[in-house]
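For concreteness, we quote verbatim a single protein encoded this way:
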Amino acid sequence: MTDARLIIAASEADANLYYACGFLAPDPFVFVEARGRTFLLMSDLEVDRARAQARVDEVRAYAAYEGKARQRWPEPRVADVVALLLEELGVAAVTVPANFPLEQADRLRERGVQVTAQADPFFPERLVKRADEIAAIGETQRHTEAALAAALDVLRASDVRGADVYWQGRPLTSEELRRIVNVSLMERACVAEHTIIACGVDGVDPHHEGAGPIRANQSIVFDIFPRSSRTRYYADMTRTVVKGRAPDALRRMYDAVLAAQRRGIELVRDAASGQAIHAEVARTLERRGFETAVVNGRHQGFFHGTGHGVGLDIHEPPRIGKVDHVLRAGQVVTVEPGLYYPEWGAVRIEDMVAVEAAGCRNLTAFAKDTLAPRSRGRAESARGQSTPLRADTASVRPKDGWGGTR
């Protein structure tokens, strides 16, 4: 008897299964790796396509094993069919992903199969990307940049009327900008879900998608993270802009976030500690006067991780945050510090980088040295003298010497 790896899932929704076999299907099917060989059990609907497309050693017909299972059990379930395949392969124990269905695991155990769940990463080799995988991520990133450029073109062409922003004679909204981004991505064979275009206080909740009118002179956070329909690889990028004139508070926030992001990118390299990088990014923000606190029951400042892995999942190991992960050459990670204050808005800047032996290679080419297009189409610099902010017990206010007293 020998151990094996087993996945039962739909590869359209399960990155581990797609990585294992390279075959895309909307309905669940069976993958087994045993004795150095890989197998799929496929329905009659998909068996021929799988034999032509799947990267496995052998594709077998599910119906054949289901027929055998009926000889033992009147109404065999998927786990019964799988148990027969495992028996034929001489397998008595399987390792399954952490999200493996409990019902199927229990049924396999009833059939005498030992089932052990493995925490992610189920395929550790997924974390270190091959050159073709990094190229696929880079391709998705180029499409992401084109989509953001399309939205910013609309923002540049819009007009500021008091506190409002108008485009083609009507108020410009987060929903309209999101439609422009998502359609651009669709035209490039990418799928975008939950695209964030959050203006003003909406952006203070980092995962708020944004809703309603775009307001002049307020921060607008664009966080775009599509998946390529062709390669299945994600990209992830965030930029923060202002339509009109950026208030001094936002400029100072932007300067600090940009400096923190640059410092984080400087530290990314093979064998680097994600925890240490995150701590240095946080210190960079603190040295510029931005503290993180809970004020009136709400988190303010920099209260999320610095980055995460990107690949066949939008969030995958390693992490750059409070829990330590050691970075390895070939991994692709984001570096995305942010600051969030209800009185001033939000600033987040995110790039993707490929970890290398002596540093990293930035896969993101989109500019980040400007806060915003002016209402007449010129960019405002995000650089300049910075008077930092800090959190006190009631709100986030400027330090003494700028705009009043604490």
Notes: The domain at 2-126 is CATH 3.40.350.10 (Creatine Amidinohydrolase; Chain A, domain 1). Residues 81 and 164 are 62 Å apart (CA to CA). Confidence is low (pLDDT under 50) at residues 371-406.
